[in-house]
Structure to design on (267 residues):
């Protein structure tokens, strides 16, 4: 499946590795806008809408399917190998890509998710979204008022407002039914006991999040033996949003380190 892509930066950045961003559940490519712009100053960047999100096609979801979507899309754009950054569901997709096709991933940065089964606690949100009844026409102001009845949390409401189709015949632009049917698979982790990715890997977790626990560290080490783990104490699950400067500093340092390793390995 070819995915919708937001591309920024030089088309060919003097041989530098491209950087790819993969969003979490109910997110979209433009959620990484500020971080993407920082990297795109001197490097090609591609932010992808995963299937059922943003402008990408809809279909059933597994991490193997989504990893293949990413590989196919990047291959079609001559953007492999790449340094891949993924948050939450996008982080699991990035991990599956690295494990299944290690030659395509020059470096891996995973934001607040582990290679273990972990619910995203979204069952209630999915039920609320499915319960929204849309009028014949809807603008953004009316949409936010409509969502306020179903979604009390303002930050989640803002995120969900990005997933609406406004104007005449309003509704959800995301593949809501496909997402709902796929939730048990998205909560899971498709373990492949023999698979491992030996490339440079950074896990960044939020100190106020329980998505990457201490008892997840052995699984991280098993699948990603070169992994380094950083904790941002003041951040929750949306670590790149809640601590943007610290996350950006870790990300930029990691990109530079991977680039240095790549140059060192070039004859």
């Amino acid at each position: 499946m070819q995915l919708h892509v937001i591309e920024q930066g030089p088309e060919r950045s003097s041989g530098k590795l491209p950087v790819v961003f993969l969003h979490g559940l109910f997110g979209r490519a433009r959620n990484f806008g500020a971080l993407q712009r920082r990297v795109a100053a001197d490097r090609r960047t591609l932010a992808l809408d995963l299937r059922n999100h943003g402008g990408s096609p809809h279909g059933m979801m597994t991490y193997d399917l989504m990893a293949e979507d990413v590989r196919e899309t990047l291959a079609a754009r001559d953007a492999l190998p790449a340094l891949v950054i993924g948050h939450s569901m996008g982080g699991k997709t990035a991990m599956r890509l690295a494990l299944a096709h290690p030659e395509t991933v020059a470096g891996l940065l995973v934001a607040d998710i582990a290679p273990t089964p972990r619910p995203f606690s979204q069952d209630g949100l999915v039920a609320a979204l499915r319960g929204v009844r849309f009028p014949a026409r809807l603008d953004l102001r009316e949409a936010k008022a409509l969502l306020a009845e179903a979604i009390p949390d303002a930050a989640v409401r803002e995120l969900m407002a990005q997933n609406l189709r406004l104007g005449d015949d309003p509704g959800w632009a995301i593949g809501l039914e496909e997402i709902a049917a796929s939730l048990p698979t998205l909560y899971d982790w498709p373990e492949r006991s023999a698979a491992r990715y030996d490339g440079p890997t950074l896990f960044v977790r939020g100190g106020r999040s329980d998505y990457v626990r201490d008892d997840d560290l052995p699984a991280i080490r098993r699948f990603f033996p070169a992994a380094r783990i950083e904790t941002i104490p003041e951040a929750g699950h949306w670590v790149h949003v809640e601590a943007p400067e610290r996350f950006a500093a870790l990300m930029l340092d990691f990109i530079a380190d991977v680039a240095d390793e790549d140059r060192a390995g070039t004859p």
The chain is about 40% helix and 15% strand. Residues 138 and 247 are 36 Å apart (CA to CA). The mean pLDDT is 92.
